[in-house]
Amino acid sequence: MNRYILYQPMHGIAVEIHILEIMRHLARILDRIIVLPKLPVLESMNYEEDLSYYFEIPKKELWISTSEFLDLGFQEIDELYHVIPRYRAEYNNQLVKELHPVWLKLIEQFLYFQELDFSIKKISPITLYNPLCENDVKSNFNNSAQVIAISYVNGIIDDALISNDNDVDEFIHHQMTPNQPHKRFLKIAQSFMLNKEYTAVHWRRGANAETMANKFWNKPLAEISEYYKYIPEHCERIYLATDTRGVEFAPPSRSLLISKYYCDSPNRNAVVDMCGCILADKFIGSQFSTFSNYIYHSRTMIGKSVNTSILL
């Protein structure tokens, strides 16, 4: 009999990709199959397709989609571990909580499972003050029930299990990380940019980014003028991926054609933005952004030189 583990999504697409590797280790330790959650539209309770819709997820024997799980007739969670992540510095910061009311509600009320109409037989509260080693995972979540769920998993296991602090590419040793989005999304970006030479820019803005950089990284986000310095002199076209609409990006002394993809689905929009950045001749992003870091990883996986990617 297969046993399954569900988890609650609550982050942007790139962080959810990172979480796949955390889930690989949880599933390995607990001998369970991962149920990929549907992805939320950022800062909302609206759920779209899961990661396997957008990306080629490796290790197919380790996971199924939520749709496949429901098609098997499962609608009940035998035990939900309601995790309060005291080990996360941002959870202990009142300003971050105020900036992310949906994130806070998900942590404290595990609303994702309710939105998808799962019934829960048993809820077990757990407050964690430190990430878990392998034995801790077993002692906290070992369970003979067929279906369990964990309400919060980002950073839940010790970093030593999943990464090397010396890695420039934070995804390089992650066995569950897809190399790139599905080809259909890459083709949208290719057709949008007409296969011409261009530089892609991912520029992260917003109160949350500023707060996280200043408080937790002790470094300011790069100003937009810093990005201008790395645009090649001969460049005439820019693909702009940003979480801020109405951005005035072009430097005043340059004449650049600025392209930006928009569609009705925010998650689809984000994935096409990734593709535009992955395929670019040169990429400029933010070292503080998991979105930028995934693009850096994907570019190296498809053979682009690391010298063509810059993280400010």
Report the portion of residues in β strands.
Answer: 15-25%
Low-confidence segments = none
Secondary structure tally, helices? 12
Provide the residue-averaged pLDDT: 90
Query: Which of globular, elongated, flat, extended, rod-shaped describes the shape?
Result: elongated
What structural class do you assign from the helix and strand content?
alpha/beta
What is the tally of beta strands?
A: 15
Largest sheet: 6 strands, parallel
Order of helices and strands: EHEEEHEHEEHHHEEHEHEHHEEHEHE
Return Rg in Å: 20 Å
Distance between the termini: 49 Å
Task: Provide key terms for this protein.
six-stranded parallel β-sheet, five-stranded parallel β-sheet, 34% helix, alpha/beta, 15 strands, 312 residues
Plain-language structure description:
With 312 residues, the protein is an alpha/beta fold. It has helices at 13-30, 51-54, 66-71, 94-99, 101-109, 111-115, 134-141, 183-192, 207-216, 224-228, 266-279, 290-301; strands at residues 4-7, 33-36, 38-40, 47-50, 63-65, 76-77, 79-85, 119-120, 123-128, 147-150, 199-203, 237-242, 257-259, 282-285, 309-311. The strands form four sheets. It has a six-stranded parallel sheet, sandwiched between helices. A hairpin with a 6-residue loop joins strand 3 and strand 4. Helix 1 (13-30) packs across helix 12 and helix 11 (266-279) packs across helix 12. It is elongated. It starts with a strand and ends with a strand.
Topology:
Layout: E1 4-7, H1 13-30, E2 33-36, E3 38-40, E4 47-50, H2 51-54, E5 63-65, H3 66-71, E6 76-77, E7 79-85, H4 94-99, H5 101-109, H6 111-115, E8 119-120, E9 123-128, H7 134-141, E10 147-150, H8 183-192, E11 199-203, H9 207-216, H10 224-228, E12 237-242, E13 257-259, H11 266-279, E14 282-285, H12 290-301, E15 309-311
Parallel strand pairs: 1-2, 1-10, 2-5, 6-8, 7-9, 7-10, 11-12, 11-14, 12-13, 14-15
Antiparallel strand pairs: 3-4
Helix pairs in contact: 1-12, 8-11, 11-12
